[in-house]
Write a structure and sequence with these properties.
The longest helix has 32 residues. The chain has a domain of 114 residues. Helix 10 crosses helix 13 and helix 15 crosses helix 18. By secondary structure, the protein is an alpha+beta fold. Strand 1 and strand 2 form a beta hairpin.
């Protein structure tokens, strides 16, 4: 009787896999970088040495080339190809790429995560309720930044050493943002502030699974990665329970006020009231409020996590450069005295050195790639003649764009905190060589709020504290493949006076 051993079965499976997963590109597509390991392709080089690997590919193959990672072809774009992608935004699908990396539709079960319709609404929300209300929001930010600093850092007459300072800064940032999101009545409860602060971190625990099953098929990875959710573990459920507990009484109170006062009702300047004004808000319908809470969570994810990350990286960038801190301190004191500590948006704009420093920090974010998209039409052809087929994932070589010598000079890779002083190039300005917030008409509409809040945080911090790295040197960021996060090394905080 003929028997097939495990070794033979494995060999057959491997051969079939090799045939199925062999990458194929057409002649007019961006060139596929050669590789030596079947199936694995460029995965190790991309995940463990992305900086060197992608740079070498760019030097040899130009603005557009393809690599084979985790069982799939991915096209990498830089410079002119990136600009062309942004100009033709409707031909590319950002939402599909985000759902692949961050499966919000699995967590946010009531609104489906980031749908195309939802993304339009969230962009409107950020534009109108955050960036569009800077004059109203900034006093709230100032008030609660100071309260947050008192709570999380307090008196540092005896120097305090804090490892992984991002978590501390995140809790400080969470307090003013929570007040802007849901109002002072709900934000008075510590549990909802803490919940909003750690929401992104809790979701992140499920997003660090390497996509090794993509070597077989993307859907297999999606299945394995979401197994915890399939077995009932959804961290958002805990945060939704806290939000519902704290927001229901506030919503019910406001509904009573609206009914009683009618046209005399005075709206609250927070996101919760904005949601209540929407035509699809109907508190009497089952799960209607759940839908709006899930929308709220997307804004929590975008407004707290990303801003605290920028603020944390900025602190690490300052900590090893005492001469920089002193220049920023002189500017901060001058502006603060003019306004007796109560700054307007115009006052924040006056701090041109601080703005330049924040922009340089963002430029040196150390991500190698970012801003993933998928091609939506049958194919997309660039002006160079290169064509990317439908369904191909593309990703931006963001480091190359941000460190372009053509745009930033021969010292482009050097950290120069005052590079943009008197250059009419604020940290909020979207440019071809500065794509931190995306590009074109779809650039992040919340960037004005995010930058102003970051600057206010640093301003208040610089006036109160000195910060140094424990090692006395510039600390490297924490890396996960081609992505960079704030350093986990120790910072030392000390009262300024």
């Amino acid at each position: 009787m003929f028997e097939i051993s495990l070794v033979q079965l494995s060999a057959i499976f491997l051969i079939i896999l090799l045939i199925i997963k062999r990458p194929r590109v057409a002649e007019n597509e961006p060139p596929l970088v050669p590789y030596t390991i079947p199936i694995i392709g460029h995965t190790f080089s991309y995940f463990f040495n992305a900086k060197k690997f992608i740079k070498e590919c760019r030097e040899e193959y130009g603005d557009a080339f393809s690599i084979y990672v985790f069982g799939n072809i991915m096209t990498v774009l830089s410079n002119e190809a990136v600009s062309e992608m942004f100009r033709n935004h409707d031909d590319f699908d950002f939402i599909k790429a985000i759902h692949e990396d961050i499966p919000l539709h699995k967590f946010l079960i009531y609104n489906g995560g980031m749908t195309e319709e939802g993304n339009i609404f969230n962009a409107k929300t950020a534009r109108e309720q955050f960036s569009g209300k800077l004059d109203i929001n900034m006093p709230v930010v100032q008030k609660y930044l100071e309260i947050g600093m008192n709570k999380m850092l307090g008196d540092c007459s005896v120097p305090k050493t804090i490892y992984n300072a991002w978590f501390t800064i995140n809790e400080i940032i969470a307090l003013p943002v929570t007040n802007i999101l849901v109002g002072e009545e709900a934000a008075a409860h510590d549990d909802i502030v803490k919940s909003f602060g750690i929401l992104a971190f809790d979701m992140g625990h499920l997003l660090v699974i390497p996509p090794i099953f993509c070597f077989i098929h993307q859907k297999l990875h999606d299945f394995v990665a979401t197994l915890p959710i399939r077995f009932g573990y959804n961290p958002v459920r805990y945060h939704r329970r806290i939000a519902m507990k704290r927001l229901r009484p506030v919503v019910e109170k406001r509904l009573r006020e609206r009914k009683k006062l009618g046209d005399n009702y005075k709206s609250y300047n927070d996101l919760l009231d904005f949601y209540m004004d929407q035509p699809n808000f109907d508190y009497s319908k089952p799960y209607n409020f759940h839908y709006h809470v899930d929308n709220l969570f997307i804004m929590v994810f975008a407004s707290i996590h990303t801003t605290s990350r920028t603020a944390a990286v900025a602190l690490y960038d300052m900590a090893a450069r005492p001469e920089l801190v002193e220049e920023l301190y002189e500017e901060a004191v001058k502006v603060d005295k003019e306004r007796n500590g109560q700054l307007t948006v115009a006052d924040v704009k006056k701090m041109i050195k601080l703005d330049s420093f924040v922009k340089e920090t963002l430029r040196h974010n150390d991500n190698i790639t970012a801003l993933p998209h998928y091609v939506k039409p049958e194919s997309f052809t660039f002006s160079s003649g290169l064509t990317i087929p439908k369904g191909r994932k593309i990703i931006t070589y963001i480091e190359d764009v941000l460190m372009s010598k053509e745009n930033y000079g021969e010292d482009a890779e050097e950290f120069k905190p005052f590079r943009f002083v008197d250059q009419d190039s604020p940290a909020t300005k979207v440019e071809r060589s500065y794509i931190i917030f995306g590009g074109g008409r779809h650039a992040c509409p919340g960037r004005f709020f995010a930058i102003n809040e970051t600057k206010l945080f640093l301003h208040k911090f610089i006036l109160r504290y000195k910060v140094t790295t424990q090692s006395g040197k510039v600390e490297d960021k924490f890396r996960i493949g081609p992505f960079a996060l704030p350093s986990r090394k120790a910072l030392v905080f000390e009262n300024r006076v």
